[in-house]
């Protein structure tokens, strides 16, 4: 077993597919399959369960993954230590909620990327639940999620404080009246696991309102577009829809302070060795 084997193993685990990992590693699928088989034979265990959708880690695979990740980070640190120009190198795998990626992440990256041109940054968007799981499984170095996240394995850095608002088309002056009168046909939400979806459901249920029909969408633009067209309502941070409000495309309906305030936190595993690229990104978050 060598570093190259562990990097290949980690790539397959991260992508959940031998084909996708081979593409990422610029090699052929047969090469990845053969090397994985030889690694499993050397260790005497199965690292993946194969199925028609791809591969998933076995218990042994889950136990090996942290070592593969930390070895990769140590190599990045070693390269930085002996670099002639002192520049930070390596990769940074970040996760973000769709809303944070749209409203907050560009400003952070504008401060980070120009000073770290040798760092490859990859951004994955998803729900708080999915991103938290990806961090727990070492598939992401860190992620912006709705806080607080109360898991012993994770540490969190408060990044932003958002004001949640109800969003509708401008024709609705009172959301409560419109809901009670059955005038709003749908509630537009992200996938199950979205924290804002859960807050909207609790908000309506707490006021004795029947939940309107839900329509899941995968993109922020799709949700805002449908709401603007008068097809329903949604709940999201005001920072996300501020431009649309100024252009008169949507209307916002403010909530009581206890309902409106929500924190966005950056989560990482406590036991993870931080690469120089990650350390400097955390510094950007702290100094914003």
Show the helix and strand layout.
Elements: H1 3-15, H2 18-24, H3 29-43, E1 48-51, E2 54-57, H4 59-82, E3 90-96, H5 98-103, H6 105-112, E4 119-125, H7 128-136, E5 142-146, E6 154-168, H8 175-180, E7 186-189, H9 195-206, E8 213-216, H10 220-228, E9 232-237, H11 238-246, E10 251-254, H12 257-260, E11 261-269, H13 276-287
Parallel strand pairs: 3-4, 3-5, 7-8, 7-9
Antiparallel strand pairs: 1-2, 5-11, 6-9, 6-10, 6-11
Description of the structure:
By secondary structure, this protein is of the alpha/beta class. Among the domains are: 78 residues, Winged helix-like DNA-binding domain superfamily/Winged helix DNA-binding domain (Arc Repressor Mutant, subunit A), CATH 1.10.10; 97 residues, Periplasmic binding protein-like II (D-Maltodextrin-Binding Protein, domain 2, 3-Layer(aba) Sandwich), CATH 3.40.190. Helix content is 47%, strand content 24%. It has 13 helices and eleven strands. A hairpin with a 2-residue loop joins strand 1 and strand 2. Helix 1 packs across helix 2, helix 1 crosses helix 4 and helix 2 packs across helix 3. The protein is elongated.
Task: Summarize this entry quickly.
The chain has 288 residues and is an alpha/beta fold. It contains 13 helices and 11 strands.
**Percent in strands:** 15-25%
| CATH-defined architecture of the domain at 162-258 | 3-Layer(aba) Sandwich
**SSE arrangement, N to C:** HHHEEHEHHEHEEHEHEHEHEHEH
Largest sheet: 9 strands, mixed
Kindly provide the name of the CATH class of the domain at 162-258.
Alpha Beta
Number of strands: 11
**Looking at CATH, which topology of the domain at 162-258 would you report?**
D-Maltodextrin-Binding Protein, domain 2
Report, as a whole number of angstroms, the end-to-end distance. Answer: 42 Å
